[in-house]
Amino acid sequence: MALLNDVIPVFCTAEICGDVLDEFFRAAYSSPDFVNEGIHGDIAVLIHDTNTEGITHPTNPPVSKPTSCPFKNETAEEIWDFAQESLRYPIFNRAIAILDEQTVVDKETCLLVTTWGNPRQNKRAGLRC
Q1: How many whole angstroms separate alpha carbon 22 and alpha carbon 102?
Q2: Domain boundaries of the chain, sorted by first residue
Q3: Is 32 exposed, middle or buried (0-12, 13-18, 19+ CB in 10 A)?
Q4: CA-CA distances (angstroms) from residue 56 to 18, 42, 44?
Q5: Is the pTM of this model over 0.85?
Q6: What is the DSSP letter of 14?
Q7: 8-12/44-46 β-pairing
Q8: Which residues of the chain are modeled with pLDDT < 70?
Q9: What gap in Å lies between CA 126 and CA 129, rounded to an integer?
Q10: In whole angstroms, what is the distance from residue 124 CA to residue 70 CA?
C-alpha cells in the first residue's frame, strides 16, 4: 500500500454510501488530467476522523462506508478552517473535496474548495471527470 504523498483530503458532510465513495475515488483516479500527467492512483484520502495523525495511507476503492461522520452538516467554510488548522504535509490543504447532501441526491457531484484563484473558490464538480 502506498504512503501519503501530497494527497487531496476528501470530507463527508452527509452520510455517503460506500458505492458513491467507490465511484468518487474511481473517477478521481481515472481523471484524464491525472492520467495524461502519468499520475496513477494515490491522490486522495478520506478524512473521517478529526484526529488526522493516524492517517498513513491514501484511500483507494473499494471504500467502506465510514463508521462515523464527524463533519456532518458542517459548512464548506468550517471544513476549510479545519483543513487549514489540522492538516499538514503530506496531506494537501489548499484544495479539498466535500461529499455533501447534494452528492447523496444526485450521486454525481461534489463540492471542490480551492485557493487557486482569489478569493477562495467553491465549485460543484462531477464525480465522473
Answers
A1: 17
A2: 8-126
A3: exposed
A4: 21, 12, 12
A5: no
A6: S
A7: parallel
A8: 1-5, 31-42, 116-121, 123, 125-129
A9: 6
A10: 22
